[in-house]
Write a structure and sequence with these properties.
Helices cover 39% and strands 17% of the residues. With 145 residues, it is α+β, with helices and mostly antiparallel strands. The longest helix is centred in the C-terminal third of the chain and has 16 residues.
Length: 145
């Protein structure tokens, strides 16, 4: 079995990449730069050094993920070893389960009515409203006038 070299302190962007939350370190740094990732309730910078016991939270696919750092590593290893670097909070696991169940059931039709492309009936109603509100004062240019 492969073991990852462990450190006492690791940069946040390197750790998120090593723990396989982001495919590249650049993507992790980009999310951190947009102030989307917080450590212990405070917005963090990419150079923030993590230590065991820190709580990291961010939104992933519309769901708030919150994890606790168990171990630190700068090296990206296989998934089972990466999963050993953290533990996800029960609230976060429940929120992800609920979101996955909602995605599995499909989109609620009532949520799609407010936006998106209007139906043929909606389009006709809109056109009818526009024609009744605006008086058409059409003119044409004819030769010989």
């Amino acid at each position: 079995m492969i073991e990852l070299p462990l450190q006492e302190r690791v940069r946040l962007d390197k750790w998120l990449w090593a723990a396989r939350f982001f495919k590249t370190r650049g993507l992790a740094a980009e999310e951190i730069g947009k102030n989307r990732i917080s450590v212990n309730g405070q917005v963090a910078k990419a150079s923030r050094e993590l230590k065991a016991g820190d709580r990291v939270s961010w939104r992933q696919q519309g769901v708030l993920r919150e994890i606790e750092v168990r171990a630190l590593s700068e090296v990206r290893g296989p998934a089972p070893l990466a999963q050993a670097l953290y533990i996800e909070t029960p609230e976060s696991l429940e929120a992800r389960r609920v979101a996955a169940e909602q995605r599995h059931q499909g989109i609620e039709p009532a949520q799609t009515i407010a936006g998106g492309r209007p139906t043929k009936r909606d389009r006709r109603d809109l056109e009818r409203e526009q024609h009744t509100r605006v008086e058409w004062d059409r003119w044409s240019a004819k030769l010989g006038d």
